[in-house]
Each structure stands twice: as structure tokens, then as C-alpha cells.
Amino acid sequence: MLHSVLMVIHVICAVLIIGLVLIQRGKGADAGAGFGSGASGTVFGAQGAGTALSRATAILAAVFMITSLSLAYTGKPAAQGKGSILEQLSSQEQGGASAPSDSAPVAPPAVPSVPPAK
């Protein structure tokens, strides 16, 4: 249940961060405002939009990082008992477990040789 809630919050934060980054003006837009661009201070003023959007992006980025760490922490116990592949192979070899004869590796089919062209 907790994992699902964290995943929903994580996805919502990711989508909102993408939206906020796409809404923000680039650094090159300030150079155009210096030469008389009329649309430089529309809704929030010349500096207001950048500050509000930057703060919102920073807050959402912090929430995104917290949910990322929380998802990693909640997912850890499920994968903890399995161990690595090398540990599993070494324990099988030490335990004397052998593969069944029907699952033995099969040699690849022989490729017919082609005589060289003259």
C-alpha cells in the first residue's frame, strides 16, 4: 500500500517537474528583453515568474528525491533475501545440486561450409 502511494506521488511530481521546466523561459530570453521586447513582463513581472517557477521546481525536485529514496528503501527488503547470482551459483555447486539431464546445454547446429568462389 505504501509503495503504491509513493509511486503515485513520484509520477505526479515527475509530470509536474516536466511541465514547470517547459513553462520556464530560457536564459536567452532575457537578452531579448533588453532590446525592447514587449512580452518580457507580462503576468508576474520581469523577475516574478522566474522566481515563482524556480521555487516550485526546486520544491518538486526535493519531493521527487524524497520519494525516490523512499521507494528505494521500501523496495529493499523484497530483494534482500535473494542474494547475488554468483552466491546462488556457488551455493548450488557446494550443495551438490546438479542440473537435470534434459536441461543440459545443446551444441549449436553445424553450419555448412561454403567453398570459396573462383
Q: How would you describe the overall organization of this protein?
A:
By secondary structure, the protein is mostly helical. The protein has a domain at 1-25 and 49-73. It contains 4 helices and no strands. It has helices at 2-23, 28-34, 48-80, 85-95. Helix 1 runs antiparallel to helix 3 (48-80). The radius of gyration is 29 Å and the shape is flat. The model has no long low-confidence stretch (mean pLDDT 76).
What order do the SSEs take from the amino end to the carboxyl end, as H and E? Answer: HHHH
Question: What proportion strand?
Answer: under 5%
Note poorly predicted spans: none
- Give the N-terminus to C-terminus distance in angstroms: 71 Å
Helix percent band: 55-70%
Structural class comes to: mainly alpha
Total number of beta strands: 0
Rg to the nearest angstrom? 29 Å
Average pLDDT, rounded to a whole number, is: 76
The gross shape turns out to be flat
Count of separate DSSP helical elements: 4
Can you summarize the main beta sheet?
A: none
